[in-house]
């Protein structure tokens, strides 16, 4: 597959969530990224969706780089079997390093931390700090309410560019991969 994308940051929950499709899609995505020879950059944990995406990529021979703050090594049970594990002093350094090492971002279901990472990346994109595409794996419509709110923000004149220039909602891991490559 010919692509200019070589590394992808994946932001997702350190829990699995209640819907089994979140885990199923996460495992599928991790395997697809590895088979497409896309380096996975993620939060370095071995729990929840984070652990699933890393393990799926590793199982298919993928390169997986985890970036984890020192204070979260135990909380998120840092992954000891990665291609590379980078321990950083804080969350800001983690996010900055993930952005710097990736060519695109994929947002999977998650909680406050996932949203924090998403909105910082969107803000940096809007401010032209970077121009990296952002894809949502919208498993079972998980991000539909957030997308509706973002469309409301656009309608009310709070966004500088059309929403579709910033984000791409994809219902399946295959669609995410097809848009990446």
Could you please describe the fold and organization of this structure?
The protein is 41% helix and 18% strand. With 181 residues, it is of the alpha/beta class. It has a seven-stranded parallel β-sheet, sandwiched between helices. The protein is globular.
Keyphrases for this structure?
41% helix, alpha/beta, 181 residues, Rossmann fold, seven-stranded parallel sheet
How are the SSEs ordered, and which strands pair?
Elements: E1 7-11, H1 20-35, E2 39-42, H2 48-59, E3 64-69, E4 84-88, H3 91-101, E5 104-107, H4 112-126, E6 134-137, H5 144-155, E7 167-170, H6 173-180
Parallel strand pairs: 1-2, 1-5, 2-3, 3-4, 5-6, 6-7
Widest β-sheet, arrangement of strands? 4-3-2-1-5-6-7
Q: Average pLDDT across residues?
A: 93
Along the chain, the helix and strand elements come as: EHEHEEHEHEHEH
CATH class: Alpha Beta
Structural domain tally:
1
CATH topology call? Rossmann fold
Strand content: 15-25%
The counted number of beta strands is: 7
Overall morphology: globular
Q: How many angstroms separate the termini?
A: 7 Å
User: Structural class given helices, strands, pairing?
Assistant: alpha/beta
Second-tier CATH architecture: 3-Layer(aba) Sandwich
Q: Percent helix among the residues?
A: 40-55%
Cα-atom radius of gyration: 15 Å
Tell me the number of helical segments per DSSP (H or I, 4 or more residues long). Answer: 6
Question: Unreliable runs, pLDDT <50, ≥5 residues?
Answer: none
Largest beta-sheet details: 7 strands, parallel
């Amino acid at each position: 597959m010919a692509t200019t994308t070589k590394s992808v940051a994946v932001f997702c929950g350190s829990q699995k969530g209640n819907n089994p499709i979140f885990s199923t899609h996460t495992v599928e995505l991790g395997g697809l990224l590895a088979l497409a020879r896309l380096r996975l950059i993620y939060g370095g944990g071995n729990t929840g969706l984070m652990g699933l995406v890393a393990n799926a990529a590793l199982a298919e021979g993928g390169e997986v780089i985890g970036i984890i703050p020192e204070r979260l090594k135990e909380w998120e049970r840092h992954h000891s079997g990665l291609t590379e594990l980078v321990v950083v002093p804080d969350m800001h350094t983690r996010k900055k390093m993930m952005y710097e090492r990736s060519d695109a971002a994929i947002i999977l279901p998650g909680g406050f931390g996932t949203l924090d990472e998403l909105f910082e990346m969107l803000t940096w994109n809007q401010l032209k700090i970077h121009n990296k595409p952002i894809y949502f794996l919208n498993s079972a419509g998980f991000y539909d309410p957030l997308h509706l709110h973002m469309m409301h923000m656009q309608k009310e004149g709070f966004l500088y560019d059309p929403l579709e220039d910033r984000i791409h909602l994809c219902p399946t891991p295959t669609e995410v991969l097809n848009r990446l490559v």
